[in-house]
Amino acid sequence: MGAAHSRLLPERQSLSLTSLPENVLMEIFSRLPAHPAFLRCISLTCKEFHQIVVNPDFLRLFRAHHRDTPPLVGFIRNQSPRFLPTIGGAVVQYDPDRVVAGAGALELDDADWIVLGCRHGRVLLQCPERRYLLVVDPMVGRREYIDAPSWYRLRHSSTAVLICSPCHGDHGDCRSRPFRIVFVYFSVAFMTNISIYSSQTDQWVKFQTPRLPGPLPLPNPIDTSRPSILIGNVLYLFTIFTTVLCFNVDTQERHEIPQPPGNHYIERRAVLRVNTLLVAPRDASLGFLSVTSCYLKLWVSNFADGVHLQWTPRWFVSLDALVPLPEDIAEPTQMPKIRIIGHDEDGNVVYLWSLAGVFAIHLDEMQSHQVFSNYQLIHRVYPYKSFFLPPGIS
Amino acid sequence: MAAPESGDGNNGAARMVTLISSDNTRFEVEAAAASLSQTLQLTILDGGGGGGDGIPLPNVDSATLSKVLEYCIKHAPAAANGGAPNATAVDRAELERFDNEFVNIDQSVLYSLIMAAHNLEIEGLQSLVAKKVADMIKGKSPMEIRRTLGFPDPTPEEQAEMNAHMLEYGWAYE
């Protein structure tokens, strides 16, 4: 402190930002917006600033200032360009001359690998022939290749979900912690098989399907094309029928619950399958969102003692209150004029494509904003959220 | 104003304290305003600063101190209300207007202020100035930040080092 005090005494005119003590500079930098582009610019300004923003104490302070909620950095997708940078929640043009205006471009070497999802700063990809998985932390350039379980036959349909290990509440630092991969596939006889990989043991563990008596084998095969959701330590996955598979990743207990009535493609064509989504409302254990050209409808699951009892309609909102739609939208058809293309589980934000562009719908706040004004962005996007992480931080 | 009486202290006679800057200028100010400083609050609670004694502040010059006190006097009534739960929107808007204008000053003064706020532990002022400085640099490229802060242009060595850092950041920030 002595040195800091003496700086104040002489001519005030000579005081500059670099002459302030480190904790005061930390205080200043922690008030920059959460988007990592801002701290990156600070770190490139001079050596003194760089030392501050790579300091783990500072990074903790910074995250705390932003309530440990990492900002959206961009969307990862399976089409070119594979990364769409965002600032303030909206897609921006990548411009190498304006470091802040364009957050950058994702350049995966594995261009034909398929993105399966993102969680807490990591991205999970699968190679086209499904033999390998890849976990990338694009912010620090870390990548880990993992063989699919040896008992998996490539002709079987599969999907995989990246989860933290163990499940925990604070995700500020969890990307440096071990992870798990839940690998789900179904074999002949439509049996859903689940295996879990742990980065700590570098091993897969197989969980046998319990064979139940009766004419129909249970559980139902899961729908690998639709996103799952992890709430606490339970992974919820759509099956190809009218149920949701609930799988506890810690106890491996699993059971199925029905989907809310009237939302199923096979029963009625009221809602297209692509426009239903499992969500995690802030004040409920599990939610089910369905979107048509006219409305959004949320159901919540009533749980008692960890057992799903029934679905209760929570709200029903006219779509034009949230998304400005072209006039000619009417009855749902085979090709939806509105579709869910992305989901941010932690933020409870759903991304909707429409002819008017892509909109983010904040389901807890019932607010929406435009993310992208072009209707050409119709394929699935994976929101990628991260705080600033200097390279080499483990 | 929400409560004109509270600004004058209890029973109309506010307790005053004297603060002495590093260049020996004496400032007489209400105890309530000076108590925005966590550091001074302890001294004042102990009965210090009254009468002819005064509290010496060897780290704060008179120009900075008068600015600090301007902030404290303005914010004291709201602070006395315990964060002003019953402040009206008008009061809050007025404080916000004051704050915005207050930090619209030279950089060197800002830095003196944040140092004084830091040493005197005036949380609101620290936060206000930190936010202002952050706003000055946010959205600028590293070179623009250097210019904004009046740094000399980087030497070739520094430039090379910056470029090397750039590369380290991988894809995310090209």
Automatic annotation (TrEMBL), chain A:
Superkingdom of origin: Eukaryota
PROSITE patterns: FBOX
Ranges of residues in domain F-box: 14-65
One Pfam family linked to the record: Beta-prop_AT5G49610-like
Coiled-coil residue spans: none
Alphabetical list of PANTHER family matching this protein: F-BOX DOMAIN CONTAINING PROTEIN, EXPRESSED, OS07G0120400 PROTEIN
Descriptive protein name: F-box domain-containing protein
Automatic annotation (TrEMBL), chain B:
Keywords annotated in UniProt: Ubl conjugation pathway
Domain SKP1 component dimerisation: 124-163
Statement: the UniProt record of this protein carries the keyword Electron transport: no
Domain of life: Eukaryota
Domain SKP1 component POZ: 16-75
Pathway field: Protein modification; protein ubiquitination
InterPro entries found in the cross-reference section: SKP1, SKP1-like, SKP1-like_dim_sf, SKP1/BTB/POZ_sf, Skp1_comp_dimer, Skp1_comp_POZ
GO BP terms in the entry: jasmonic acid mediated signaling pathway; protein ubiquitination; ubiquitin-dependent protein catabolic process
UniProt key word Ligase: no
Physiological role: Involved in ubiquitination and subsequent proteasomal degradation of target proteins. Together with CUL1, RBX1 and a F-box protein, it forms a SCF E3 ubiquitin ligase complex. The functional specificity of this complex depends on the type of F-box protein. In the SCF complex, it serves as an adapter that links the F-box protein to CUL1.
Subunit structure: Part of a SCF (SKP1-cullin-F-box) protein ligase complex.
Family to which this protein belongs: Belongs to the SKP1 family.
Protein name per the record: SKP1-like protein
Organism: Eleusine coracana subsp. coracana
UniProt gene name: ga14711
